[in-house]
Amino acid sequence: MFAVNIGARELQLMVGDITKIPVDAIVNAANSALAGGGGVDGAIHRAGGGEIMRELSSIRARGPCPAGSAVATNAGLLPAQYVFHAVGPIYRDGNDGEPEKLASCYRTCLDMAAERWLRSISFPSISTGIYSYPLEAAATIALQTVLAWLSSHGGSVKLIKLVQFSESDHRTYCQLAVRLRNELTHSSAS
């Protein structure tokens, strides 16, 4: 595990199964139809049970969830209170608004956690699976967005966990986090 502290708050990078990490809210990398799927989405639905999908059915009736946004449901059998179903962008070439939409997923979920007075939240690596977002670019956006949010928001959220599925993804996130932390330290010292 790798951690970055900002005041009394902490960003943790870790390898693991996001469905088994106790937090107040787990972020799901959902599709715009909110219909379940493979990867993280499938794992969350399998571990959380049918209650999550039943709640999503009523939300789905209102129409698709656009990329960059999220909806909340209960967490069913997961070790959390909520699941925030964030719809990441499908990567095309990086010039179709993908970076803004991906950053919006992280900000939206953090805002949802703050609105509910939650203390902890975990994120998968959104859009890096079947949506083909290049890992280093997606990790940079995730880290920059989360660190900026932590630096500019007060409130209840004290612990943010970015959970990587593999050791190689974790190494990429850690290397980028060290670089970003050094840049933050250097810019605040200037």
The gross shape turns out to be globular
Supply Rg.
16 Å
Largest sheet: 7 strands, mixed
Q: What is the architecture at the second tier of CATH?
A: 3-Layer(aba) Sandwich
* CA distance, first residue to last residue: 29 Å
Task: Tell me what portion of residues adopts beta-strand conformation.
Answer: 15-25%
| CATH class bucket | Alpha Beta
Content-based structural category = alpha/beta
Summarize the helix and strand pattern as letters: EEEHHEEHEHEH
Using DSSP, what is the number of strands? 7
Note the total helix count.
5
Task: Explain how this protein is built.
The protein is an alpha/beta fold and 190 residues long. It has a single domain, classed as Leucine Aminopeptidase, subunit E, domain 1, CATH 3.40.220.10. The protein contains five helices and seven strands.
